[in-house]
Design a protein that fits this description.
This protein has 302 residues and is of the alpha/beta class. The protein contains 9 helices and 13 strands. It has 3 domains: 82 residues, Orthogonal Bundle (Arc Repressor Mutant, subunit A), CATH 1.10.10.10; 110 residues, Periplasmic binding protein-like II (D-Maltodextrin-Binding Protein, domain 2); 102 residues, D-Maltodextrin-Binding Protein, domain 2, CATH 3.40.190.10. α1 crosses α4. InterPro entries: HTH-type_LysR_regulators, LysR_HTH_N, LysR_subst-bd, WH-like_DNA-bd_sf, WH_DNA-bd_sf.
Length: 302
């Protein structure tokens, strides 16, 4: 069995029919059926249950599919890595980003574009769960998410911390700095995608530390929409300060806290024990250099 036959097998699985797989592979159906028979003959087992034209994996077929996907992906990575050495910096850099971390990447993308004009970028927005799964499936190269993350599949670089702030309608005329207890009965808008995400838990735990839970009247996964609702006077929210840097602040007021003891800390993550492209390595190094510079600045200030 060779890689070509594994590719045939994987395509049949993903298309669900020999006819569709042959069309995708740009070959006739009989030769593809023959290749499948050769594979089954070599392995001495049936890989599919035939249900009319549909092909349903057997237990043996499922095992082979999983292993074949991994082998083909590793082979493609090897070819790409070898070719990249001689090609320099070009191609596609896929970045996953939490909405509250978007401000971290804009200047980095502009800088990389200026230095490597042949490089293309693909940006995927999502929460921690979605982005870690995308990394695991090799759909993105790196991701920037909110800390903490405890996942042994990834290496990480923690970025400088940011304070959480209260975002409130300007027309409410609240003044800061503000105490957490003053939010007890105020309508609260939850930005986070679901109530199992780490950042949501951190914020709720901070409320509880002050003896209450917030009056959540709306869950919304879109940062711009949350800000618009606040401008209209629906309620308030808590966000990292720098997540608002690229948004219009007309109609909202940003207040610091007197007694909020949590910080936002973005983290850039990438898969362990897997080839990382030059593009991704250069992208990470830009954060590494910036983080080092910030630390040196703090030392000088002290």
């Amino acid at each position: 069995m060779d890689l070509r036959q594994l590719k045939y097998f994987v395509t049949i699985v993903e298309e669900g029919q020999i006819t569709k797989a042959a069309k995708k592979l740009h070959m006739a159906q009989p030769p593809l059926s023959y290749q499948l028979k050769l594979i089954e003959s070599e392995l001495g087992c049936q890989l599919f249950d035939r249900n009319g034209r549909n092909m349903i994996l057997t237990e043996s077929g499922s095992i082979l599919y999983k292993k074949a996907k991994s082998l083909l992906a590793n082979f493609e990575e090897t070819i790409f890595e070898v070719k990249e050495v001689g090609k320099g910096i070009k191609g596609l850099l896929s970045i996953g980003v939490d909405q509250t971390c978007q401000n971290y990447i804009t200047d980095k993308i502009v800088s990389m574009n200026n230095e490597y004009p042949d490089l293309r970028f693909k940006l995927n927005e999502g929460d921690t769960f979605a982005l870690t799964e995308s990394l695991d499936r090799k759909e993105i190269d790196v991701a920037i998410i909110q800390h903490p993350i405890e996942d042994e599949r990834f290496d990480s670089l923690i970025l400088p911390a940011e304070q959480y702030v209260l975002v409130t309608p300007e027309k409410w005329q609240l003044d800061g700095p503000i105490e957490m207890k003053s939010l007890k009965d105020i309508p609260f808008l939850s930005f986070y995608r679901h109530r199992k995400c780490n950042t949501y838990k951190i914020i709720i735990d901070e409320f509880r530390r002050h003896g209450f839970t917030p009056n959540i009247i709306c869950d919304c996964i879109d940062l711009a929409m949350i800000v618009t609702l606040i401008k209209e006077g629906l309620g308030v929210t808590i966000l990292p300060r720098n997540s608002l840097d690229k948004l219009s602040t007309n109609g909202i007021k940003i207040l610091e806290f007197v007694d909020c003891n949590i910080q936002s800390q973005a983290t850039i993550i990438w898969p362990k024990n897997r080839y990382l492209s030059k593009n991704a390595r250069n992208f990470i190094s830009m954060f590494n250099n910036a983080t080092t510079a910030d630390m040196e600045k703090d030392i000088v200030t002290l």
